[in-house]
Amino acid sequence: MSNSIRTKLLQVDLVRKGWSWYRNRCVLAKYYEFVDKYGGWRIEDGSSATFQTSIADEVRQKLGARGAPHPTREDCHTLIMTLTDSWGQGMVCELEAFGPVTVFDWWKAGFVGWGPAFQRKVPELNERFFEFVRNTHARRPIDWVLITCNGAIILRSTIRRIKEDLGVPIVNQWLDCVHTFELGQGPHGQDLGQCDIAPDFDLVCTSSRTACSWYRAVGATPLFLPEGFSPTLTPRLERPKTADVAFVGACYGQRPDYVAALRKAGLRVVVAGSGWGRGSIVPRDDMGEFLASARMVLGIGGVGYSMQLTTLKGRDFEVPGAGCTYLTTFNGDLADLFHVGKEILCYQSIDEMVDISRRVVRYPEYREVIAACAYEKSMASHRWRHRFEAIFKVLGWKPRTVPEIPAT
User: Quick check: 301 and 278 in contact, CB under 8 A?
Assistant: First the structure.
């Protein structure tokens, strides 16, 4: 079936809902398969002090065993493999606080796309990346390598070659572990998800506490590390409020039902993302303006097509960090990071979402207090720089500290 026909069919409400129901069942089945296979019903508390100390000890032992160099300069040279057309650029901005940053963006290097055609280019992509790493290290020694992709992009052989050639720590960050831990064998002898490549990294950062058990089961060293944000990309802006609610994200699954419920309640909703129709794509550089134009921002925290599973999202930190009032799906992990009811707001059903949204729109003083508290917490605790400091702590490093931007 062509993409155009599929798109037209999914515009039929009954077809979309049936497809969403089916995909939800698939996501749940895969999740429970992962739980049974990799962790049973045992969940490692990846954020506990005991767990993090254990992981730090194990990581440092691995680095010491191969004689990994320790940064001797005041600053820290990072080489990051990421895409800079979205949140990856925020990571780059925040890494610059610790020293020079060298970026390998595989799309900008000419390796664009996904699927079978892209997989044929993966060996060439990996060879290009390895040479890039070696040449960069020759010009100025690299202190560590951060790779933000899964087994569909990076090969185990490349990770091993970098460790053997440079010896420096190699850290992986992947944010979709809950439903992409396994994706099936690819054409290069490894799973396209995380399960095969994870053990070869010195440290794997995951935004899912549940997935910590899975990583341990395959012999990896995981660190529960939520997403962060960069105030450079999503700054706090004071703008006239031209909409009641803003939502950022692609149009699929049950998301249209949430937006429709708010509009049916008489609220003006603006959306940004693929699939919502003409004019719905907001450039990255304009995202701060878009968020600031609404009285509140809606989050939908489901995992893929499933609203029965939840996961942390980048927007959970970008929106509060932009000084906006944020309402999203209740998630226990998120409730540990923000004070629900004081710094962010949460719902557990569409009806509750509508009720809270009406209250937020009706009472400006209420939403302004929520937004101010969230901004203060985000600037103090949830920037990407805070996440990198956590990684450096595990590695046993103390790079230079740049003074915080004061919350205003």
Answer: no
Across 203-222, b (16+ Cβ under 10 Å) vs e yields bbbbbbbbbbbbbbbbebbb
Q: How far apart are CA 179 and CA 23, in angstroms?
A: 12
Token pair for 198: 């994870």
Residue with tokens 């993409």: 3
Q: Please choose, from the candidates 161, 293, 177, 184, the residue with its C-alpha nearest in 3D space to the C-alpha of residue 226.
A: 177
What tens digit of pLDDT does each residue of 136-183 get?
A: 999 999 999 999 999 999 999 999 999 999 999 999 999 888 889 999
φ and ψ at 150, to 5 degrees?
-110, -165
Q: Are 201 and 220 in contact (CB under 8 A)?
A: yes
Contact 77, 397 (CB under 8 A): no
Pairwise CA distance, residues 102 & 106, whole Å: 13
Edge-to-edge, what's the strand order for the sheet holding 144-147? 101-104, 78-81, 144-147, 170-174, 203-206, 222-224
Say what the pTM is: 0.92
H/E stretch holding 270: strand 269-272
The Cα–Cα gap between 343 and 120 comes to: 47
CB 90 within 8 A of CB 228: yes
Q: Which residues contact 389 (CB under 8 A, 6 or more apart)?
A: none
Distance CA 301, CA 333 (A): 11
Residues whose CB is less than 8 angstroms from the CB of residue 177 and which lie 6 or more positions away in sequence, other chains included: 194, 206, 207, 208, 211, 214, 215
Q: Is the pLDDT of residue 41 over 50?
A: no
Domains, the chain = 38-225 (3.40.50), 243-381 (3.40.50.2000)
DSSP, collapsed to helix, strand or coil, labels residue 271 as: strand
SS3 370: helix
Q: What are the tens digits of pLDDT across the range 302-334?
A: 998 999 999 999 999 999 999 999 999 999 999
